[in-house]
Predict the structure.
Amino acid sequence: MNYWGYSPLGFFAPHTGYAMRADALGAQDEFRDMVKALHRAGIEVILDVVYNHTAEGGENGPTFCFKGLANDEYYMLEEDRRHYANFTGTGNTINANHPVVRRLILDSLRYWVQEMHVDGFRFDLASVLARDETGQPRDNAPVLWDIETDPVLAGTKLIAEAWDAAGLYQVGTFLGHTWKEWNGRFRDDVRGFLRGDEGTVSRLASRLLGSPDLYGHEEREPEQSINFVTSHDGFTLEDLVTYERKHNEANGEDNRDGSDDNRSWNCGVEGPSSDPEVESLRHRQVKNFHVLNLFALGAPMLLMGDEMRRSQGGNNNAYCQDNETSWLDWSLAERHAGLLRFVRHLIRARVRRVQAAGREGESLNAFLRRARLEWHGVELHSPDWGPSSHTLAFTARAWGDGLVVHGMLNGYWEPLDFEVPEPGAGVRWKRWCDTSLDAPHDIVSFDAASEVQGERYRVQPRSIVLLFTGPPVPAGVPAWPQGEDLDAQRADSVAPHFTV
């Protein structure tokens, strides 16, 4: 069962298995109705598209369509012309820069915009589109320029998974001026820091700043970096803190499928645990991941269910699991109501900060140049960038509205006393977030934040603390949510656009 739909054949057809009506027209009508309903709710639709391989597989695979039409035009072939180049891990690779295939891809994208009204696309294994007919990477791949310059696609969001299964990794170097990229470096470096890996602190600092080491040379907006720590492909956030290794036995491939490089940590026990200390640590780590993802510069992406600790039982390649492994158990929202509340607070705070920043059209470099940012370690103005460091602190005055944020990140396994800077005349630091605390004290609305006394703050092991001073809301920006009754507030009053 190809539950994800990642073995395409008809590039213009919604999958009938997702529709209530089992006919092709029914799937088409239902898809359009879905998009219209989401648009009425202020939600944009980003369609995940696969233009790198098809369901026809390699030389031993079936012939459904393209093999019988023009095999050597639609697919990349090896020199013997009998075997298929396999840069996708699926047996074949679309010959995307052949004129006929380029036209097919463009016509398909136009169809989904004009007829189905989607707002953009995420391109699976997009680096395949940068390869020529022999499989070699091209500096100016025609199909990528076709997509970027097409007038019908102007204004749509283009997101690249800027790598493929054969080792072509183009994060930070993907072709074009408007493409945004899944930032795999963000995922790996955040996972490494929270796991306790050495040599991760300096890389984490760069990821929190929108990855200027990857994107600064292009003078693009911070949102060029799509920040994420989990996606549909790999562990869920719950499994990231529960399993050291993948458990894909149910897929029927002897656990050979799926990535072996997960940078996960099970917090001392493989699989579910009834030990309260293990459970507390896992819960804290999940909150830490959410804080770093939603606080960093860039465009954050969250995996469905991570806000309520959804698990796949350690399966990191659940493409074939149309069952409880892949489904969302909505009762988790009640079971983990504290975490759901925590993530809602983070999202609302991020939206308000973006509105307050007023930097539309500003490049990442320009924003960082005017940002007043100071790095610290356990001691003020003494960041430890060494390979054995597990701590980082910062003071940020980047918004121009009087708000100052001081963050302290303790990736160490013991509590540490962080020195806190002077907040300024007539004001005091207030604690907004401390991931070591239980709900509802782990994160609060700004009006409910408690004052912090003293020159140091004890940050518990593997915890993140965020303090603030100054007015939480500048003039002209909608008020912050007041108090704890966030469920009663309409989602569309929080943010005009979220990405599905």
User: Anything to note?
Assistant: The chain has two domains: 16-340, 373-494. The two ends are 23 Å apart (CA to CA).
